[in-house]
Amino acid sequence: MSRVPGWLGRLGAGLSGMGERLNEQRRDRDADSDTDEPRDASTEDYDQVPAPPAYAPAIAARPDPVDAVPWGMRVAAEAGWRLLILAGTLWVLMKVISAVQLVVLAFVAALLITALLQPTVARLRRMGLPRGLATAVTAILGFVIMGLVGWFVVWQVMENADELSRQIQDGIEDLRKWLLNSPFHVTEDQINDIAKSLRDAVGANTEELTSAGLEGVTVIVETLTGILLAMFSTLFLLYDGKRIWQWFLKLVPAQARPGIAGAGPRAWRTLTAYVRGTVIVALIDAIFIGLGIYFLGVPMAVPLAVIIFLAAFVPLVGAVVSGALAVVVALVTQGVFTAVMALVVVLAVQQIEGHILQPFILGRAVRVHPLAVILSVAAGGMIAGVGGAVVAVPLVAVTNTVVGYLRAYSREAALKQAPQPRGATAMDASPVGAAGADEAREGAAPTDEPPQSARTD
């Protein structure tokens, strides 16, 4: 019995020593984990992955997709989506304009009339008249003159309609006889067949003509509405145009406001020069062509002259159409010789207009390339008919002036923000050159006009 407690004591002492050693090992591990960085299990797994063999092919890393696209394609894509946004914006704008076409045309007509009458208002104010009275006198005189011109044309057509109809019938009979005796070998049966075809065409389209007559009532109502809108808009533009322009400038972003504020007066001067020059050129055309066909004995010479005056506001196309109308009237009323002489008169006056009058009267302020004139007139006619053809060319001229000024303004702003040159090369690097430096030394005041090289036609 005496050996059992000793054995148990030695066993307990061994277990106690083993527990102490385990505790020491645990403390050592805890101390190591506090000082060393934790290791990721995934990293340990990857460290155990064997390296590829030496005979395995090398695989290059895939490039960035942006770098894989060619530079030219990236430029085309950048330009393409911007052009799509611009095209969509223009399409929406054209839809809006088509929805309110009457209002837009009336306001544009008011702008054209205001550009024609504004110098008279300014002259009356310099004479001492108040602004309201000067505006009223100018507007009343302008509208009365335009109304008298329209009434005169209608009166002349109605007075000479019977005589013109008789002369047309006589001219058609003379043309029939000339065709029978001409070297073209036209027979009586062929002429009768042509006349019968014309009568059948008129009879078959009677319903269309009737519906067109009913639509004409709607056109008259819309025309009267447009005239009233144009008159009221003209009155307000003549009286309060400066305040309207200042209000419009407040809608422009502040950064673009100085450029727009400088481009606006130049655009208005261009529009004024275009309208006044076109009126003078159209008046000269109407007077000389009217005198020519009057001395040739063509009936309704005065109404034809007024039509020529009004058609001159559609550049190129209006002159051709009105001149052709005068020649046709001369042909069916006075014969072939008178028609040829009328054609000579029309061509001579139009050549003088194109090569002398327009460059001298309009000058470089509103010079637009003939191709741009044709394309703008065609586009305006397709979008808004005759009204669109009338306002197309002044719109292009004003846009040309605004774009040219803004380009020059942005160039000058960039030069002002650029660091100034120093040293001996400062004079050579100066954008104004030697003449501008001399002017600056003399204390000349700078002008607000863009540089001459930046002005466009």
TrEMBL record:
Sequence segments annotated as region (Disordered): 1-52, 416-457
Gene Ontology CC terms, in alphabetical order: plasma membrane
Entry's localization field: Cell membrane
Membrane-crossing segments per the record: 133-154, 217-239, 273-295, 301-321, 328-352, 372-398
GO biological process: transmembrane transport
A Pfam cross-reference name: AI-2E_transport
Top-level taxon in the UniProt lineage: Bacteria
Family the entry assigns: Belongs to the autoinducer-2 exporter (AI-2E) (TC 2.A.86) family.
Name of the featured protein: AI-2E family transporter
